[in-house]
From TrEMBL, chain A:
InterPro entries: DUF1468. This is Divalent metal cation (Fe/Co/Zn/Cd) transporter. It comes from Sedimentibacter acidaminivorans. Residues 19-157 form the DUF1468 domain. The chain crosses the membrane at residues 20-37, 49-71, 92-125, 131-156. Keywords: Membrane, Transmembrane, Transmembrane helix. It holds the Pfam family TctB.
TrEMBL record, chain C:
Residues 18-434 form the DUF112 domain. The chain crosses the membrane at residues 16-46, 58-79, 110-129, 141-160, 166-187, 250-275, 311-334, 354-374, 386-402, 408-423, 430-448, 460-482. This is Tricarboxylic transport membrane protein. Coiled coil: none annotated. The keyword Transmembrane applies. Keywords: Membrane, Transmembrane, Transmembrane helix. It comes from the Bacteria.
Length: 157, 370, 501
């Protein structure tokens, strides 16, 4: 009995999110207050923490509003579920590839890292023509490099 | 310069052709043709960029220089900085890109210069606030973190009010401030800036006003134009146009001597004679600085360039038109410039501290009492 | 009359027209590539054109400016990555329309109405620059704060079905914008000891991450990568249909020009306000707003392009730039020894006419280039996703790096990409957050300025809220907020039903 009563709050997305924002607003409010009274010796009117405090108050009310939305959904028995299946494997590989790309770019310079990255991403996303992958990744890297560094004076690593 | 532009134009054309052909390449799989195109592209591009060579200090400057102005566009620092940049470009043979990075009494822009590579390609053109940052507790930066290239000019501080203002003379303004302490509103560029220093001097003579910080001199003027505040302490070059057009009334000069162009406008020390000793301060010394770690030969090249810049006829016209005080004549070399900074720092820091407006005591940073 | 002839004499000056064309082509490409902003392009041009004559330099720069602001719409429509914050709104309807295979139609509408907006703004600049200036000066810091706040509330109500979710997205954006050294007192806030955060969170990496990278991630996680982004149907869009919206467009242009004239507000606010208005005044859009209504594109594009003329007004008459691009144009003036300010229109009328002429010529090129190139560029979306997505990712990385040459910005972009992904998956629109990040700093400093100004008055509340513009803005905000609270909404719709019955 207790289980089924507790569940809706935790599974309802709006409720979950509202709790997250609730915590964030309280945190921001406490941060602003402690910083204001602790660090700067200024009146509130000039304090850098006036605005964050204001945001936290707004966020507080909004999280309550969101929570009430969630309650209404539970009451009316609406379930907001995403039907789209998430292909986690591809997503996580892509995210990791991005991370690796960002990390190695300053080390092995722009063009090689970009060739590797585009090559891998093309393969990950289902391209199987090898010659095409090599060709496209080199072409794109070179074009982007020259577009930015020669034309626009952007010092790419 | 011309070849650079030419190279860019060629590259643009090559890029255009390639981008337009891209679609054919991808869609129609004409591999041979596309490989030829790539080859042409790479050849063309390497041809265009063949002018890059390993960098060393003697070849400085090889690429455009960024001049950071830590105040918003249109204020005096911006105006003088840009003017100097134009004349420096001539002798450096490279462009100087001016970037305005306003906020927090000029500390944000100054920090950017310190954070960037100390290769002399990022220079700072700033007003006085570096001398007060530490005392004000704004940042840990001071003039000691930079090397002076040139101390250009002091822009006279003037007191202006809206054209429809009830004040017509400085005396009326001063009287009203005395009668209604804390009620007369003034805009200024932030704690530690020249407007703030002046306000503190006013406070010494029982003149108390309500102050509101804006991001730069031009925003302070807009506040006066829009009747948000009653008056501001501005730099003469910033407001010259508005005085000519009649949008602002010039009612006083914060100095001991009247402006040559406006001999009828009284100075602050004429109204309050006791303020004479403070009105000698160069409130807005504008200088070009680089990170102190910039190689000495690069600094030397920059110095030579500024020295020839301030001899240009256009620059001299600019100085006299705006009633600027040419400080580089008084402080021509690095030693005298540093002496100027340390004197300035000590006078102003102690002034701020004694007024109770400072967070830290100047003693903490070994700044001696004047 | 002689002024009129002077301006149009530039149209016959082949050299002058050519300089505008160079700028226009550059603007088209730069604006369309996410991460390359018009601001950057203009800054670069300044360094190239400093030896040219003033009029030639102005011609090129106006070309970049006018066409660059428009071409931000191209990437918004085709790949849902706005080229600049002011094109965010265009993506709301443009991208859905493109996905339905009508990218060509969306681009054509964007082109025509960017043209209308730009022309309108420039004509206003030409004819009534002075009165607009004095009106803009009446805006106090409180009004700026409220205007930005109003912008945020309208976005909140526009972009998601759930109003509180939209506003939460905006609040998170404001929270993000307060990170870094505060612009009034110089105190570092919310940096958590991370040194790189002190300079604050840059708008460009945030924008690219929230829109660009998160779009890529959403696409990857949804699968079906074999598909093309969309099919392109070759439908003929009749000029007659397009011009139906002209009257409304002029109305949005008025909004755009005026908001543009307020320093600091600019394109993003203008386009959101215009979009909000469009939603209110147009009862029967061709498709629901947010699903590809051309009315939305019309509103966004007319207003953000009308901002150009507007932003030039305070730049020329007060030497206070209305946005980042005009700040750079201001420097071009100084470089060439001109002094914008209250005397400018009187002292250098020929320069003023040259600017107007360059702007008008650029408008013509905008129309030509847009109509010629739109169908060509439109084909991008027929490229399969599995090829497009990696390239877009690299562009995101390079684009976020390009602004400040900082690797840290790339990391920020990546973080925002992940945040954006989860926001989208949970039904939070990223548009309010983006707008909030853009406007946060200005709201913060103006709010404090307003409090500071009012605190010396004897009656604090009346000083803060007493001015007429302030009252109007507050009323607008209250109406927007309350009309979107579910309970109130129900009452209103019930009332309507009752009266109908």
């Amino acid at each position: 009995m207790q289980n089924s009563k507790k569940n809706p709050f935790l599974t309802n997305k709006s409720c979950q999110e509202s709790i997250l924002f609730f915590i964030l607003s309280i945190g921001l409010f406490i941060y602003s207050l402690t910083k204001h009274y602790g660090v700067v010796k200024l009146e509130w009117k000039m304090s850098p923490y006036l605005f964050p405090a204001l945001i936290s108050i707004f966020l507080f009310f909004l999280s309550i509003l969101l929570f009430s939305d969630g309650l209404r959904q539970i009451k009316e028995g609406i379930s907001v579920e995403n039907d789209v299946k998430v292909s986690w494997k591809k997503l996580i590989s892509a995210v990791i590839a991005c991370m690796v790309y960002i990390i190695i770019m300053p080390i092995i310079t722009f063009i090689p890292s970009t060739i590797l990255f585009i090559g891998y991403m093309l393969y990950l996303l289902g391209e199987r023509r090898k010659l095409f992958i090599i060709f496209l990744s080199i072409l794109v890297s070179v074009i982007i490099y020259f577009l930015f560094s020669v034309l626009l004076n952007v010092m790419l690593p | 310069m011309k070849t650079m532009v030419f190279n860019k134009v060629t590259t643009i054309l090559i890029m255009l052709i390639t981008i337009l052909k891209m679609e054919d390449l991808i869609m129609k799989k004409k591999l041979v043709l596309s490989l030829v195109l790539v080859l042409v592209l790479i050849l063309g591009l390497t041809g265009c960029s063949g002018n890059s060579s390993p960098s060393d200090a003697t070849k400085y400057p090889e690429k455009p220089i960024t001049m950071i102005i830590p105040y918003s566009a249109g204020g005096t620092t911006d105006l003088v900085g840009r003017q100097l940049a134009i004349h420096m470009e001539k002798s450096l043979g490279q462009t100087i890109t001016v970037v305005n990075q306003g906020g927090a009494s000029g500390s944000i822009g100054a920090k950017t210069v310190l954070d960037s590579d100390s290769d002399g390609y990022t220079v700072l053109f700033t007003a006085e606030s570096l001398g007060t940052q530490r005392t004000m507790g704004l940042s840990e930066m001071s003039y000691a973190d930079f090397s002076p290239i040139i101390v250009t000019a002091n822009d006279p501080k003037v007191i202006v009010v809206n054209k429809s203002s009830k004040y017509n003379t400085l005396q009326e303004l001063v009287d009203d401030m005395k009668a209604n302490p804390g009620k007369v509103k003034m805009s200024y560029t932030g704690p530690g800036g020249s407007g703030h220093v002046q306000a503190l001097i006013y406070n010494k003579f029982d003149l108390d006003m309500a102050m509101t910080a804006y991001t730069g001199g031009s925003d302070c003027i807009v506040a006066v134009l829009g009747d948000q505040v009653d008056f501001t302490n501005s730099n003469f070059s910033t407001v010259r146009g508005y005085i000519e057009s009649g949008d602002l009334k010039l009612i006083g000069v914060s100095a001991n001597e009247r402006l040559a162009n406006y001999p009828d406008v009284p100075t602050f020390s004429e109204i309050i004679p006791e303020s004479k000793e403070y009105m000698d301060i160069a409130f807005t010394p504008l200088s070009l600085l680089v990170d102190k770690d910039v190689p000495a030969d690069v600094q030397k090249i920059l110095k030579e360039s500024t020295n020839s810049a301030v001899k240009e006829a256009d620059w001299l016209d600019f100085v006299s038109e705006n009633s600027l005080d040419a400080l580089y004549e008084k402080y021509p070399d690095e030693e005298s410039a540093r002496k100027f900074y340390s004197d300035w720092e000590s006078v102003v820091s102690w002034l701020i501290f004694d007024a109770g407006a400072a967070t830290n005591s100047p003693e903490k940073f070994n700044i001696k009492r004047p | 009359m002689s002024e009129f002839i002077n301006v149009f004499s530039y149209f016959l000056d082949f050299r002058y027209v050519f300089y505008v064309l160079i700028g226009a082509v550059a603007g088209l490409f730069v604006g369309a590539i996410p991460g390359l902003s018009v601001t950057m392009a203009t800054a670069l041009l300044v360094s190239i054109t400093y030896l040219w004559s003033t009029t030639d330099a102005m011609a090129t720069i106006m070309g970049v400016y006018v066409v660059g602001v428009f071409s931000g719409a191209i990437s918004s429509i085709l790949i849902n990555i706005p080229g600049a914050p002011s094109s965010v709104v265009t993506a709301l309807d443009g991208y859905p329309l493109a996905r339905q295979g009508e990218a060509y139609k969306a681009l054509k509408y964007a082109t025509v109405y960017s043209f209308v907006g730009s022309m309108f703004g420039l004509i206003v600049l030409w004819v009534i620059a002075r009165p607009i200036t004095s009106l803009a000066l009446k805006f106090t810091p409180m009004d700026y704060f409220l205007l930005a706040f109003f912008g945020l509330t309208t976005v909140g109500s526009l972009t998601t079905n759930n109003f509180s979710k939209g506003l939460i997205s905006a609040m998170i954006g404001l929270f993000v914008s307060t990170i870094g050294i505060d612009s009034v007192m110089g105190t570092p806030r919310l940096t958590f000891g991370i040194y790189d955060l002190q300079a604050g969170i840059n708008t460009v990496p945030a924008l690219i991450g929230l829109f660009g990278l998160s779009e890529v991630l959403v696409n990857i996680s949804d699968g079906n990568l074999e598909a093309e982004v969309s099919k392109l149907t070759k439908t003929v869009v009749k000029m007659k249909d397009i011009l139906k919206h002209l009257i409304y467009s002029l109305y949005y242009s008025i909004i755009g020009t005026f908001v543009g004239a307020l320093p600091g507000a600019g394109g993003p606010v203008a386009s959101f306000l215009a979009y909000n208005t469009a939603k209110k005044i147009i009862k029967n859009p061709s498709k629901p707003f947010g699903d590809g209504a051309v009315e939305g594109i019309v509103a966004s594009e007319s207003s953000n392009n009308a901002c150009i003329g507007g932003a030039l007004i305070p730049m020329l008459t007060l030497a206070v730039p209305g946005d980042a691009v005009t700040a750079i144009i201001l420097s071009v003036f100084y470089v060439h020894g001109l002094r914008p300010g209250p005397m400018f229109l009187k002292q250098s009328p020929e320069m003023f006419q040259a600017i107007i002429a360059a702007g008008l010529i650029a408008c013509v090129f905008l129309l030509l280039l847009g109509l010629l190139i739109a169908p060509k560029i439109g084909k991008i979306i027929t490229v399969p996703k599995r090829i497009l997505l990696p390239i877009v990712t690299v562009l995101c990385v390079v684009g976020s790096f390009a602004g400040n040459n900082r690797m840290f910005d790339v990391i920020l972009m990546f973080v925002f990409g992940i945040v954006g992904y989860f926001m989208r998956k949970r039904g939070y629109s990223v548009a309010p957050m983006t707008l909030a990040i853009v406007l946060g700093g200005m709201m913060d400093s103006n709010f404090r300025r307003a409090i500071s100004l009012a605190s010396s008055e004897s009656n604090f509340i009346s000083a803060l809220f007493g001015r007429p513009i302030t009252i109007v803005l507050i009323m607008l905000i209250i109406v927007t907020l309350f009309s979107n609270i579910p309970a109130v909404r129900n009452i209103i719709s019930k009332d309507k039903n009752n009266t109908l019955n």
